[in-house]
């Protein structure tokens, strides 16, 4: 089937396991407190304690942290999980709506990438909104990328760089690629792993029409995240904020992955189309019934997606 086969978007294409997981997610999340009411700091702390629908994050004994200096003179912790002799460096930018999440909250995923692709995985603890709104988070991701370009060989023994992230982290991945090209003349990324990206922060149709059924990411969630991240920004279609509107020429190969039950499905479809139209290599992977964040849960749909991601990274590394 081609990526745009209508059958992929049919209810009949959704596996029973996926449909069951989605209904469980709705049941788990319905009635949960909202971060913008509880307050972001309290909400983050509760998530780390495992309060609410999800368990506390599992910390890897293999992880170490180093600190680099940001553009504002701030310190940026980098969480590193690396094999003995890395064949490349994967710059990871975590999700969480630019408000939640952390570099140490998905260690099992970082371990998988390190083990399956042989890369040193470097996850950026970028500053979060609303305490540090745009451009603080993107600035930290840019600083980490620039540091790796300059110091990757010394620190990890390789100059082969890939980049990727999920949701807000996928947005920051796109922003970082564009900044590195435009501000540093760097276009050496081997590949980008773009997982259910937010590419248009003025809101695509799928974001606006998703509604408020609690299948992980709702329309109101996007609105609240954007208001926290962009409190004073009036034009949300500036390419540094919405990379969908940027000049995309001369960029690296990319894999765009999304589920059909994700509010960000349009963002991913549109970004893939523009990437290709700009003359870049790109793959599009659409997963029937996949909700936002589906790759982070243990099921067959997630396994298929992460296997494809690892294969893509291995291919672009050569």
Summarize the entry for a quick read:
The chain has 318 residues and is α/β, with parallel strands linked by helices. It has helices at 16-29, 35-38, 40-48, 107-117, 136-156, 168-184, 205-209, 219-229, 265-277, 300-317, and strands spanning 64-69, 75-81, 88-93, 119-124, 161-166, 191-195, 254-261, 282-291. It contains 10 helices and 8 strands.
Q: In CATH, what is the class?
A: Alpha Beta
CATH topology: Rossmann fold
Q: Sketch the major β-sheet.
A: 8 strands, mixed
Question: Roughly how many Å apart are the termini?
Answer: 26 Å
User: What's the architecture in CATH terms?
Assistant: 3-Layer(aba) Sandwich
Fraction of helical residues? 25-40%
Number of structurally distinct domains:
1
Total beta strands = 8
Beta percentage is 15-25%
SSE topology string: HHHEEEHEHEHEHHEHEH
The radius of gyration over CA amounts to: 18 Å
SS-based structural class? alpha/beta
Number of helices: 10
Instruction: State the strand order across the main sheet.
Output: 1-2-4-3-5-6-7-8
Enumerate the spans where pLDDT stays under 50 for 5 or more consecutive residues: none
Overall pLDDT metric: 97
Q: Based on Cα principal axes, name the global outline.
A: globular
- Would you identify the CATH H-level superfamily? Alpha/Beta hydrolase fold, catalytic domain
């Amino acid at each position: 089937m081609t990526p745009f086969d209508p059958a992929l978007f049919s209810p009949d294409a959704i596996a029973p396991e996926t449909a069951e997981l989605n209904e469980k997610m709705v049941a788990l999340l319905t009635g949960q407190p909202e971060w913008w009411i509880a307050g972001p700091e309290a909400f983050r702390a509760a998530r780390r304690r495992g309060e609410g629908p999800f368990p506390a994050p599992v910390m890897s004994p293999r992880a170490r942290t180093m600190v680099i200096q940001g553009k504002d003179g701030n310190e940026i912790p980098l969480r590193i999980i690396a094999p003995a002799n890395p064949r490349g460096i994967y710059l990871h930018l975590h999700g969480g709506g630019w408000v939640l999440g952390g570099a140490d909250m998905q260690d099992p995923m970082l371990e998988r990438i390190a083990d399956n692709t042989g890369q040193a995985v470097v996850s950026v603890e970028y500053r979060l909104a609303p305490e540090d709104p745009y451009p603080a988070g993107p600035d930290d991701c840019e600083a980490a990328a620039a540091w790796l370009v300059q110091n990757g060989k010394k620190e990890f023994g390789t100059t082969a760089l890939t980049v990727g992230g999920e949701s807000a982290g996928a947005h920051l991945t796109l922003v970082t690629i564009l900044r590195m090209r435009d501000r540093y003349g760097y276009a050496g990324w081997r590949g980008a792993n773009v997982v259910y990206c937010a590419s248009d922060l003025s809101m695509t149709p799928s974001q606006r029409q998703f509604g408020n059924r609690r299948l992980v990411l709702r329309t109101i969630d996007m609105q609240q995240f954007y208001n926290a991240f962009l409190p004073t920004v009036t034009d949300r279609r500036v390419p540094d904020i919405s990379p969908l509107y940027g000049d995309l020429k001369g960029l690296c190969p990319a894999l765009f992955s999304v589920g059909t039950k994700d509010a960000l499905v349009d963002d991913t479809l549109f970004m893939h189309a523009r990437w290709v139209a700009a003359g870049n290599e790109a793959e599009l992977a659409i997963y029937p019934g996949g909700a936002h964040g589906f790759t982070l849960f243990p099921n067959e749909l997630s396994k298929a997606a992460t296997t494809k991601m690892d294969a893509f990274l291995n291919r672009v590394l050569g």
